[in-house]
Amino acid sequence: MPSHLIFFLCALSFLSGIAFAAMGLPFVLTLVPAAILFSVIYICGERARLALIGALILLSGSFYYFLNDYSYRILVLNVPKSGEVNGLVVSDPVFSNNSQSFYLETDFGKLEIRTAQEPVYEYGDTIKVAGSISVPPQSYYGDYLAKENVVGTMYNPNISLLSSNGGNRIMAFFFGLKNNIKSSFKEIFSPDEAALLSGIILGVNEDFSKNFLQNLSLSGVRHITVISGLHMSIVMFIVFLSLVYVLPRRYAFTITLFIAAFFVALTGFSLSAVRAALMGSIAGLAREVGRIYSPYNALVLAALILVVPNPKILVFDVGFQLSFLAVVAMIYLSPLLRRALRFGNGNGFLNWKASLLATLAAQIATAPILITQFQNFSLIAFAANILILSVVPLIIILGFLIATFSFFFLPMAHLVGFLAAPIIEYVIFIVNLFANSAVLFNPSLGFTGIVLYYAVLIFIMYKFHGEKLAD
Fold it and tell me: Which of 145, 164, 261, 326 could form a disulfide with 150 if both were Cys (CB 3.0 to 4.6 A apart)?
């Protein structure tokens, strides 16, 4: 068996072991899927030694998760129930419902602080907080906090600012840059336009009205206002195709990676942004090298890079799942859809064919997750995504120009803003239009339904690419 295939199977076994453990399967019971893996590989004619290695690696993945979770639970047990705590603010505040929340790094772990909107605390502030500490609950939200390595939450504590401008200088610089760009958007655009542009460029959405956030969700384009894997993967894919029209492929790909890196930096190198950029880069790389079967090792390697430091994201991070599925779909499902829709080899005017295929593939691959997690999947969301994602690369380019000129020559920033405003208003119009026309489809899939859906999808893609290689 080729070495690249051995690596793929071993990495997949390790990730499967983590997934089984994260879903609550006791370590002893992981012997069952390990035995199944052993039997399947052996029956298919491979050497028993490789099958045994795969089964052992699956068990090691489960054991690795249990060790990681045990370490986290020990931290939670050692969290004091109340008292005064000094710590460093390690995130920008997130505003919602007349409150702000941020993460505080302390001697015994990371705390989530929820307090009033004023005064605003920023990355690098050293503060003293006093109050009671609630440990993460046994719920979906508790799983989210565990995934973020948060060991407790303080609600409305007494806060004293001890000092500012601490923390990592590079991260502090990018946090400050993000806030300055956000302020420049507010100066140039109307409130709704500035909020949408900040969402697309910076991934912040606290300036949206509750009604518009609901419309974004109902229209199926909520992902464009957060730096998510689904957003990043599709946008990088389309930006790359757009740049290829005017630049050599190598330069187009390099600029696309630079845009992804800039996104990540503006978020303070958050896990979700790093994940999104990494997955989006793989999608672009797959198209750059032009090989269908080359990306699968890159995909599983990317998953390992992200999962090993934090194994909980494999099951408890919806963004990770959407990222991975979107990239797989754009690499493996898009060619199948191209043939089914008889699109030929061209991408069409302004890459409309490639944009349509990428968006449709991502929607098909992520539909069960969107249905089960958000309960507002619309059957016409695909059309809204096509109409909006076709102009998102242009909005990103104009947004970068506005941000740049706002630091050096504000009148030019206003001029570019004048050109960008109609495009942003077009996006707002499409969002509201499709939200009011949403055709909701939220069947109760269950775990079995989701597994069957992806089993059929994987089988179809496998058959298609197997036949293509045989041609």
Answer: 145
CB atoms within 10 A of CB 140: 9
SS3 441: coil
> Cβ contacts of residue 358 below 8 Å, gap of 6+?
234, 237, 238, 330, 334
Q: Model-level pTM?
A: 0.76
In sequence order, what DSSP letters do the residues of 282-321 get, joined into one string?
A: HHHHHHHHT-SSTHHHHHHHHHHHHHTT-TTHHHH-HHHH
**For residue 227, pLDDT beyond 70:** no
Read off the amino acid at residue 182: K
Name the DSSP class of 29. G
Nearest to 306 by CA among 268, 333, 280: 280
Pairwise CA distance, residues 106 & 112, whole Å: 11
Alpha helices in 148-248, H assignment, sequence order: 169-188, 191-202, 210-218, 229-244
User: Phi first, then psi: what are they for 177, rounded to 5°?
Assistant: -60, -40
> What single-letter DSSP state applies at residue 333?
I
List Cα–Cα distances, 8 to 13, 293, 301, 302, 366, in angstroms. 9, 12, 8, 12, 23
Q: What pairs with residue 154 in β-bridges?
A: 113
Burial 269-291, CB ≥16 within 10 A → b, else e:
eebbbbbbbbbbbbbbbbbbeee
**Strand 99-106 relative to strand 150-155, pairing:** unpaired
* Structural domains of the chain ordered from first start: 3-77 (no CATH), 82-167 (2.40.50.1010), 176-470 (no CATH)
Q: How far is it, in rounded angstroms, from Cα 267 to Cα 317?
A: 17
Amino acid symbol at 179: N
DSSP count for the chain of H helices, then E strands: 19, 7
Give me the percent of the chain exceeding a pLDDT of 90. Answer: 18
Token couple for 297 = 């090792």
CB 354 within 8 A of CB 348: yes
Residue given tokens 């050109």 in the structure block: 419
